[in-house]
Amino acid sequence: MPVYRPWNRLLLLGAAAVFALLPGCNGLADESAPAKTEQVVPAKEAKPDAEFAAAYTGAPPDAARIVADLERRNPQHPRLFATADTFAKLKEGVRADPLLRKWYADLRKTADKTLSKPVGAYETPDGRRMLSARDARPIIEQNALMYRLSGEEAYAKRAVQEMMAMAAFPDWNHAKEFLNTAEITAGMGIGYDWLYDYLTGEQRDAVRQAIVDKGLKKAIDAHNNKVWWTVRLDPVNNWSSVCNGGIIVGALAVGDEEKQLAGDVIARSLQSVQNIILKTWEREEGWSEGPGYWRYMMEYAVSYMAAMQSALGTTYGHAQTTGMNRMAYFPVFATGPQGTFNFADNDSGKMKIPELFWLAKATNDPKLASLRIAMMEDAKQAGGVYDLLWYDPKFREADVSLPLDHYDRGAEVVTMRSKWNDSSALFAGFKAGSAIASHSHSDTGQFVFQAGGEQWAIDIGKDDYNLPGYSNYEKERYTYYRLKPEGHNTLVFHPDGLFQQEPAAKSRIESFVAKPQEAFAIADMLPAYARTADAARRGVKLAERQRLIVQDEFRTNTPSDVWWFMHTRASVQLAEDGRSALLTQNGKRLWVTMTFPKDAPQPAVFEVQEARPLPESPNPKGQTPNTGIRKLAIRLTGATDVRMAVELVPLGKTEPVPVSGSPFVPLAEWK
């Protein structure tokens, strides 16, 4: 297992370097039978930092306890994420530490861009989402922090302009999208707290009353009415973290003035997030909504815990939740040298995660902080508000040991790679899971592949959330190309216009083996194909860490047409016999071939198709055109009992095209 020292090598890292430095671990099992594994990973959760451990009580707090803790610990302003002493020390740090100085310059540039930007407008362009809500918090906190550090009044004025605009809104969109309510409440609370001494008495009253009327009271109503995000555990969703977390931050800002209301809403929000988000951390090893929604969930989970730690001196045990440290690494393994395995409604870009600095301290896991620094260097990310606030220089030189392969139980996602610190490394992602999970796609069997600095087999991503029925998982959602099996790199049995996989089914990784020279995973996909098959298994192997094998073994319940698909942006040239293809992209090459058992040859060839629905499939209007994307396809006619492997082999610049692929080895013999 390689060991990296990221701080000493930051300038030497290639495009994939940050993720060459990222650790991870396996942990809790769920009620299903465990997958076979030979991977060696850290088994223990990191111990909490002494500050957090000492504050742990374990008992759910009531409103009176919360208010008492606020009055005892930090009744003055500022108290959210930082105190006056924190800001004073940060000023000194900016003068003394070159890294902090760079991030401060980054923050100034970011805040300067907002100075002439119009304040947010009260509008929902799509009829549901208030887009200004997403911008309000960063505008307020960026400018408020710049004022605290520089003393330049222009920044304070810009933050106050945004706050007064939000305060004047008739509501914060609680009826249509409570996420917006929580986002604005958090931003307003931060501005109220950090700029308390700058605000006039009239401005304080307006902002505080808006937080109370448009944020906290609406949250109490939601809890009283048991709105779904306050009580529902399954399917897991980011809403509980964002909605409860944002409200807690806002309530802490006014808790000394609105004691009963703030104490009550914090207590109820803590119970809600404990029953939903923290319970998910305890039982699962990944986030089924995908990396981008993990980021949204963790942003607000860390926000409320960090605000409580600074304002109350405790998180009431939330920061000691079993699984929090493990969950911090989920996006690490989901990201390859050329981008993220963007299953579900996610994009493939690399993410900004300043929360890793806070998590490093909360769990006493210094490598998380080193990883955040390396991530910023790799992606050339600018420093931001929480990088400045949560960075601790003592954590920056941690050694990081990384397994090459990882299995996220719960999300049912496996990733494998040839190396960490190589932008040309091979990387494969493979997914089973459920199509009924929040933001999920009907994509059991999906795989992606990166090699030679290119993405070859890709996930083409989400579509427009405003398409009719996009969130109706039992009807319209899986009529859209990008969300159903034929829009992914998987199989379609007997296309007839109906669901191509069972939406409510959950398929699991039944075997996962990681060895020094290779790794593989096998999924039982029969739950997804129960309508059209009697058996369905797919294995994905990173063989010799030099090539990828995607192997299917299935038995249909009636002779059927079966399609195999792989989406790509590469150019495709088919061999004369149709049994192999040469993909080219940016001067790089990938050879793809198919193999069958010697005793069961199949009359199949590759073909190249546009990324659009099959003739038998519904094709609703308004879908995103898949411009520049094509798919390599195999059609099996009248298929019944099939065993087939497709092999993907990256080629060097002068390497000749192979004459034949590897011999077929049944999944039962994969060891």
Automatic annotation (TrEMBL):
Residues in Heparinase II/III-like C-terminal domain copies: 431-594
A GO MF label: lyase activity
Subcellular location: Cell envelope
Signal peptide start and end residues: 1-29
InterPro entries linked to this entry: Chondroitin_lyas, Hepar_II_III_C, HepII_N
Main localisation: other
Heparinase II N-terminal domain segment(s): 133-226
Record Pfam families: DUF4962 (PF16332), Hepar_II_III_C (PF07940)
Protein keywords: Signal
Domain of life from the UniProt record: Bacteria
GO cellular-component term (any): cell envelope
The protein's name in its UniProt record: DUF4962 domain-containing protein
Species this protein is from: Paenibacillus ginsengarvi
